[in-house]
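Sorry to interrupt, but I need a hand with the structure work. It will help me judge whether the discrete encoding reads sensibly. Write everything out right here, beneath this request:
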Amino acid sequence: MLQMSGETEEAFAIICDMSNSVDQSVIDLSLLIGHDYRNDDYIRFALIQARDNKIALNSFASSILACYLDHDNVTIVSEFIDSLIFINHVEKDLLRQLCNFAKKEPVDISSFKDETDTLTDELTAFAALLMAKAGEDELAVKILSPRVDEQLLDLKARVFIDVLSINSYHHPHLYRILQDNRKRGSCQIDLLKKEAHLASLLADYAGAFEVLEILHRECPYDEEVSVNYINAWLRSGKPLSSELMLIVEKLDISSPDRVRFVYAALVETNNVEYAAIFLHNKTVALGDDQLKHLFFGESTTGYIAKVVSAELDEVTPGVCVILRYRERPKALIVRENTPLGKALLGKKKGDVLTLLRDEYEIISIHSYLYKLNADYLDEVMINGGNERMMPFFIDENNILESFENAIKQFSPESYNYEEQRQKKIDDYKKGNIPYSHLIEIPDVIGGYYKGLFTSFEYKVPFA
């Protein structure tokens, strides 16, 4: 009664006073209170009393310990497991392996695999989970299926859901269970997220949107939920509305991977112009090198190339202009409130203007989005490159040598270019590898092959 009324400390104090007359009921009650309140002290007390008084733990106690185990409190159970007595030795073997699993150590299912019929339904569920993790997922499903009521989300059903999650073969079955339980009113956040994930994997974007609409209402500030909500909205065929754009604009995405995810959803649903703006804005906001490289690639040869790199007819406020200034290219956004900006308005490609004795030639005119590319190239040139892009130069007087040095530049520092190239050539001469393999060897011959037989072009000026 004390436990039920919430007076946990008083209940435990009474149990401690009974330590001179400990029996199985005292052990069970201590474990139950410890489990319900996630209190290690109560669990430790129960295990010490069971050990010192040589009380054999029953299936109820074993089930509580199995439920209590996780990565944070596995130590207390594993500390006592070998010194405890169990009525059913199979339960002890199972708990020992659950401890190993929680500690991310190897699990041996052989000690209980063929004796699950001696376990309670709850302990059988844990045994099945370990079997599934050990690669015996089909056996785990076979053992659990007759013991689980798919319409009741109890411990067995939750473990069954985890088992079905392991093998994609069972995903349609799992998806149906989650859908049915949601439609009956179950709105547990973790299960809704699992259902939404499965819906996306199974390309049921309408179903994913239905679930994510609930999740977005319940977790409006969850970045993962919001990103998946946007993806499901677009891929389910709904239009890019002002409501969705407002959600996108308010979303403070911190992960470059999630930026790429939303960008892919936008471009693959033909929202190319907005995709360009989105990727540009998030790249500027995060300043991430990978996103800069993505934007550069996508805006030169990718989905958004026509939006970003297309040349405009004349200079208007807010456009990006590439100028030749003192023999070097210079990119700027045209502002009406600056002398140079005012002087550029209305000008076209090829026009030359003079301002304060400085001469400017307009090389090209683009959307403001293009400025990010120009800045990225400047950054690469100034810093000598990054892990995704590295500038190199071709000496017109030593073209082949320059080209070879450029290939070396992109190879790992530890890579012995000459040694590896000679080894591959020798293998080819001996007949160990065909010619097609020789020319595809990364960083060795492949670079030459691609340079000669792809769209790479180098123009040699003749006197």
Residues 272-286 form the longest helix (15 residues). Residues 61 and 118 are 15 Å apart (CA to CA). The radius of gyration is 33 Å.
